Amino acid sequence: MEKRKLSFWEIWNMSFGFLGIQMGFALQNANASRILQIFGADVHELSWFWIIAPLMGLIVQPIIGYYSDKTWGRFGRRKPYFLVGAILASIGLVLMPQANMFIAFLPALWVGAGMLMIMDASFNIAMEPFRALVGDNLRTDQRTLGFSVQTALIGFGAVLGSWLPYALHNWFDVSNETSLGTVPTNLILSFIIGAVILIVSILITMLGTKEYSPTELASFEEDQVHAETSETDVQEKSSLLDIFEDFKKMPTTMRQLSWVQFFSWFGLFGMWVFATPAIAQHIYGLPYTDNGSEMYQDAGDWIGILFGVYNLVSAFYAFALPYIAKKIGRKRTHATSLFIGGLGLLSIYIMPDKYWLIVSMVGVGMAWASILAMPYAILAGSITPKKMGVYMGIFNFFIVIPQIINALIGGPLVKYAYGNQAIFALLTSGVSFLIAAMLVSKVKDIDDVVKS
């Protein structure tokens, strides 16, 4: 038997929930540091608060991947996890910017950090089953398209989330002013809108997508082809602790990709955490102690625009990735995209004003699209469909570990090595992208259309 070839719109609908997930994720990425600073966090402490996010990924995604491989019921295999994750994430989105409501019980900073933890754990519950669903439902010759469509929807969702606070303030006259310890109204309303769209988009995917049953998946020829694991590796597991055994037996391709992922996500984390203080200081000329002035709020809104730009670029570039990869191979496509992204981050230092930063974000957007698509397209060909979920979850180790390391050392680097000048954290991220680009050449891509 062979998997049915899906139409473009079937693939689009299958991944549509990612639009809502990434809208919420983008609101978090662009505004969490700003919100935490409003609640009292210092610049050098930001990365320590952000460590919550990768820790949740490290714990949650392999467990969810394992259990989603084992799940089959009236609602399907992966879909129940989409819904639970969306509901929990929506609660976090609504409550994080309004954490000062709980000040009678706990400091707003603690509550805000707690909501950040809930949001990120919930995004992880929903996110990795989505990636596994692409591996489940698509044939080998459609996987690059599938992950590229997913990347495009991630981009569109992130644009909506990133631009929403700026749009509400500048187009609909919603206030972005803040008093001591209070998040601006445009941010609060943005997070509520993001929560609603997250739920709706997940429901669209759930109601419009059919999953293959475990019996059907077992019958496909791809169980015997393009898998590096031995027959003993694909037997049904009886314990969650077998994840550690799977980790030891991971395919060679996954090991090689792990280093590429490490430096890619080390760079991304530094950009997400320190972009707001870096631009506020380097472009707007504000002191590192400023976290509440009108100009600081303007800088925060502009970060949303910049993050929206790189996500918009990634959405359109994602459609080009399958064609570029067909011409020059997935590895060369990924390496080139990472190199351009590294140059984009490094160029921020020499840009004369905030508008020129848009050019920098074009390069970042190309790298972001490739990071979200190419490693997964390469990886999916090297693992058995029976263990797609657990290996996608294990692969997340190489996303969250570099973020945890950056979270631990990023703040002290900014304070002691960079003299509280957060711009140098962005330059470090650029160098990290360049290292990742060089390491792509070491990866073995088993079922690439173009062999490099």
Describe this structure in words.
This is MFS transporter. The chain has about 450 residues and is mainly α. It has 17 helices and no strands. Helix 2 crosses helix 7 and helix 2 crosses helix 11. It is globular. About 5% of the residues have low confidence.
Total DSSP helices: 17
Poorly predicted runs of 5 or more residues: 222-238
Mind telling me the C-alpha Rg? 21 Å
Structural class per helix/strand content?
mainly alpha
**What is the helix content?**
over 70%
Q: Mean pLDDT, as a whole number?
A: 84
Tell the overall outline.
globular
What is the makeup of the main sheet? Answer: none
What is the number of beta strands?
0
Q: Ends: how far apart?
A: 30 Å
Question: What's the quick description here?
Answer:
The chain is mostly helical.
List descriptors:
globular, mainly alpha, single chain, 452 residues, 0% strand
What is the strand and helix layout of this fold?
Elements: H1 8-14, H2 17-38, H3 46-50, H4 52-70, H5 79-95, H6 108-137, H7 143-172, H8 185-208, H9 214-219, H10 242-248, H11 252-282, H12 294-328, H13 330-347, H14 357-380, H15 388-395, H16 397-417, H17 423-439
Helix pairs in contact: 2-5, 2-6, 2-7, 2-8, 2-11, 2-12, 4-6, 4-15, 4-16, 5-6, 5-8, 6-15, 7-8, 7-12, 7-14, 11-12, 11-14, 11-16, 11-17, 12-13, 12-14, 13-14, 13-17
